[in-house]
Amino acid sequence: MLQYFIFSGVFLFFEHVFHILGTWKFYKKLGIKSWKIFIPIYNIFILLKIYKKSIWWIFLLLVPLTSIMLIFILWMDLIFSFLEKTKKNIILFFLSAGLYIFYINFFKKIQLLKIENINVNAKKKEDNIGILLAVIFSFITHTYIVQPFVIPTSSMEKTLLVGDFILVSKIHYGLRMPMSPISIPFTHNNIIGNIKSYISIFQWPYFRFPSIQTVQRNDIIVFNFPKDYHHKIIDRKDHYIKRCVGLPGDLISIKNGILFVNHKKEKFFSEKQQAYFIKTENIPLNIEYLKNKMDIEDIEYIGEKNDEFFYQIMLNEKKADQIKNLFENIVFIKKYILPIHFKEHSIFSNYFDWNRDFFGPLHTPKKGEFIKLNSKNIHVYNDIFTYEKVNKFDIFYKKYYKVKNNYYFMMGDNRHNSSDSRYWGFVPEDHIVGKPIFIWMSIDWNRESPLNMFHWKFRWDRIMKTINGKHSYLSLFFLFSFVYLIYFLFKNEKSSTQ
Hints:
Elements lengths: L1 H28 L4 H4 L4 H9 L13 H19 L4 H9 L4 H8 L21 H16 L1 E5 L13 E6 L50 E5 L14 E8 L4 E5 L2 E4 L2 E2 L8 E8 L5 H6 L6 E7 L2 E8 L1 H10 L3 E6 L23 E5 L6 E3 L4 H4 L1 H6 L4 H4 L4 E3 L4 E5 L9 H4 L2 E2 L3 E13 L12 E2 L6 E2 L7 H24 L1
Antiparallel strand pairs: 1-2, 2-17, 3-4, 3-17, 4-15, 5-6, 5-12, 6-7, 8-10, 8-11, 9-10, 13-14, 15-16, 17-18, 17-19
């Protein structure tokens, strides 16, 4: 939580500085005092008042894409308060994506035009209620519509990278109403350390509105971690993000590291990563090259013996082939699959001799179905009885149990570096938070010291992209710009003929 607020604050700070650098001369010419120019949000609020736009426009600042649009609109108003709306100025503004304002601000002498919708000398107090409304609207958006998250771990690489900032829709799978009504706004479960940000003695019952779409197999989902024992209220448990590979009623099994759902092999997707065991001779791998040029982060050096060097690296198949063809001193590179008889003690339901690569078969419980209980599966479904608040002593005397809720089986795309349902079991439907929509910002930082801004690198190819990387929301910005260009050209042409 702390990391997200730090990075979000840095992003908003850069956006604020960028706005000031491009508009300070305009503010001065409008008679705005210097100290007001530097106050975030308030400086936007002043422009909205000057141009007689509704204070509700301030809400556009709350989402990265719409905040850019709002600033774009205000820049346009500023420019054409000092320059004539000629075709040349309009085209230059749009072709430069608004950056034309910097040229005007620093290199051109500007003079305020007499425009009816500007009243600089009006002696009305700025109404600070606008800022308060912005905060309220932001809280409502954050709680009921869309919530920002940052990816802190590599469990979903290469689909989602450490440093990806995502927006998650809370309404796609049905809005889950808050269960802890008394809490500090914009916080999740803890403020600092173990100090909780909410009062747990007040708890609302679980309620979810109808969904826009149902959970589909292979959807990426944000959910509350079921085994977070530090927080009893569901919506205050830690957030996890994984891929839903098993729907209610599905049969899950893993054989030799390959996932099977209902006896069918999972569909291939190129971003899936696994552990590869690599051996080189005479010369070690160039770790710096792998990290800086091939964007490979999870590299573990195992050791050296007789001029042979051993590594374990998390790779997808494409990266594995690239490494194999790139380094001539590689003796072998192969997937690191655990033996079938090797038992991982941390695996879900350690009653069985399962591990990450040989798992199941395991049935995913479905609402309304009857499970026949026996000495083996009663250990598997023990958590279900806890989630559904069933007296476990009564269960031992029953042959069947009717499931009250739907459950899901989650796995990370970084299959050998993910704490998922293979280790802690099913996700109840009431733990589901929402569906990731797109990546609005992506920063590649030093994972050992992420707050060191001098090592930050923006991943420009991921900003404003959908999760699957197939579509970019930047196109909406350019579409918006084009519509505005046509509108102003038409308006200017019409006014010149009158």
